[in-house]
Specification:
Structural class: mainly alpha
Number of domains: 2
Oligomer: single chain
Order of helices and strands: HHHHHHHH
Helix content: 55-70%
Strand content: under 5%
Shape: elongated
């Protein structure tokens, strides 16, 4: 007779199954409920698809306006990508300051991937009117200029700090959107 899973006999099995079906990290669930990660990976793998579907259906709000949800989630994703890009710029500044070229190259790649994802997302959001915004802080020529400035200022720490502060201020400002209301 096959041995039953530790999860199947756990008093909080329902919570664990919900977490697995909803896509929570196995590592976090394992830590919370005191399991080895492999136990939860096996349990998740062996969960019948119908069980996962039932859990997801039970925990999805009925009557959700999908269009409104898509807009809200897209705005949140864009805000997150912009904040992430700002953190990458700060990390690049530190890497340059410490002369860590490997980290500098890694963060430049992260910014490039971030910009690609942002571009893809914005391409999917275009409904009706098309508005073209140019983000100077993400433009390759701007990034080259920024790098050249930081490299040139390595020997002048006070000037470098002042320039970094000014650049960060400009890069993190929220753009003002000018518009006119349509009188119709």
């Amino acid at each position: 007779m096959p041995r039953r899973s530790q999860v199947a006999t756990h008093p909080r099995r329902a919570e664990i199954e919900i977490g697995l079906a909803m896509g929570m990290q196995v590592k976090a669930l394992a830590k919370k409920y005191g399991f080895e990660k492999q136990v939860l990976y096996r349990y998740k793998r062996d969960m019948p698809p119908s069980r996962k579907a039932a859990i997801l259906a039970a925990h999805t709000s009925p009557g959700v306006d999908l269009d409104k949800l898509r807009i809200v989630e897209s705005e949140g994703l864009l805000a997150h990508l912009i904040a992430q890009r700002g953190r990458c710029h700060e990390a690049i500044d530190l890497a340059i300051e410490y002369g860590d070229l490997k980290s500098w190259h890694m963060f430049e790649g992260d910014i490039t991937r971030n910009l690609e994802l942002t571009g893809k997302l914005l391409g999917e959001l275009g409904v009706g009117t098309t508005v073209n915004n140019i983000l100077l802080a993400g433009h390759p020529e701007y990034l080259q200029l920024r790098h050249a400035l930081m490299s040139a200022l390595i020997k002048y720490p006070a000037a470098k700090k002042a320039v970094l502060t000014a650049l960060r201020t400009v890069e993190t400002e929220q753009p003002a959107i000018e518009h006119e209301n349509d009188p119709t």
